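This part of the workshop introduces the protein records we will be handling. To make this concrete, we reproduce a full record directly below.
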Amino acid sequence: MSASQVARPTGDGPTAPGPPEPATEGERPGRRGGLPRCLRSARCRRWLYALAVVALLAEMAVAMVSTAVEQTPTIDEPVYVASAEVYLKERSFRYNPEHPPLGKLVIASGLVFTDAHLDADFVGSQTALGRHVLYESGNHPGRLMLYARLPVIVLTLLFGLVVLAFARDLTGPPGGLVALALYAFSPDVIANGSLATLDVPATGFLLTALWLLWRARLRPYLCLPLAGAALGAAVATKMSVLPVVPVLMLLGVLSFWHAHRTREPDTRPRRPALGARARLRLLLYGASAAVAMALIAVAVVWATYLVVDPRMRWAVPENVPDIRGTRGRIAAWLPFPEAYRDGMRIQFGFEYDIWKGFLFGRLYEGSLWYYLPAALLVKTPLGMLALWAAGSVAILAVGRLRPAAPYVLVPAAVLLAVSMHGARDLGVRYAVFMPMFLAVAAAGVTLSRWRAAHWTTAALVCFVAVSSLRTYPYYLPYSNEAFGGPSKTHLRLHDSNVDWGQDLGRLADHLDRRHHGERVWLVYKGAGVPSYYGIDASDPLKAPLGEVHGLLAVSDSAVAKADGRLAALLDTSTPIDDVGHSITVFRRR
């Protein structure tokens, strides 16, 4: 090679000799086409991509861990933590049978490092047990809750990698990064993923099963059994995923069919079209593969119960209702342990109860079919809503993406339809699958040939990130800018959308810092014990109205449902402070 010749890059492949090209006007040394030389290297691009993934997951981890440290126990968490302790110490699943064991075993994996004390002689309800373990047994509630929450946080981060991989398989690396960004900045995922609860783990296992079913279109004999295991993990975490199990079995048949009907590359002879008998045989093989996948799922459910108690001891609790009709037959026929089936009867019993709801300032009894879509509209970042819609349209309209619709959009639609007809309008946590599934769908926008679409996508992702970061660390009461942000959420929604008992510790700090020594009256909705955090407060609902003077701290869910005595107190009080956007402090003279 002559001295005048230099190595010149050709795409992503090896270098080839060639004469040096004259630099264009404004082009700096080390650049071609206005891009840094390193960006033309496949290895460099891979490192930058990995760095972006790590940065997104690190941001999410910081948000979840710091939130977990600051928040006091929410309403459901003490029950799960106490049940997990009973799993560890007594090998019994007599508490909280309405939820299968796996999610609580995940929580227990953190509790093993705490050496918490459990009173073996305790007798009482699961709610009383949760209070007893956290506040009455000499344990440190903050430490116990942090160790219970950390395994769920780790799982939430791992499910972020599933979102990345699923979207990348569908659309390529840019789509994977968009999906991960939406997932990592989702206020609902961060809020629920930082708690020792079951919603995110169940949905994450289900999403993993769907991703493996998609990959089974190419490698059915490896991915279908793994999909069955992931499906079993979802069913063993929360029963609310059961309605979508038939969809996943049909997808198992579809994936098996596709894997055996895919034509060979053009360089090889094409397979002849199958006759009717061959198609029927292939369909039967696919159905057999789906049944095998379901059997693996059933085995995983049984395994989780056997891990807790190998002897499978179970005495039917008194609160198991007698469920008849279709629901009763479903509970009786499922091939799961008796404890699982009794837990399902308890869940069905909840559906017959009358619950109070609150939506856009209206307090009502029962449920509204449009509650969840309306709540999602309030609590989802605006940029995320736009990308969900655009990505869903892309999946349905782009030929390359259309086969993914049954794997992404159909399960989300089925779960949403079932959840919309539930009896409990208590929060978008019942639809946390939406930000997880539709993050994958949103990746479809990156396949647009319209250049402006790429810049618009980047701008919307940045908008989502800014909206999410601005609400830190108050993710539970988040609402988007169109509805006034987290400080206004309590005007439109209640319960776990806003106030789940998470800010009792913040209230204690606030009272000590700004109102030290003043008389405090408290109406608190939550599982914490105010006196433990140094709050010396009285119940205003048990005292004559004329004696209630000073500070009146009220959980926003109680404000939303106030009637009678509490309503009279609030009407004659002045709001002066807001704690965590979930507790309002009034002054009553």
Q: What stands out?
A: The chain is about 55% helix and 5% strand. Residues 276-308 form the longest helix (33 residues). The first strand starts at residue 6 and ends at 8.
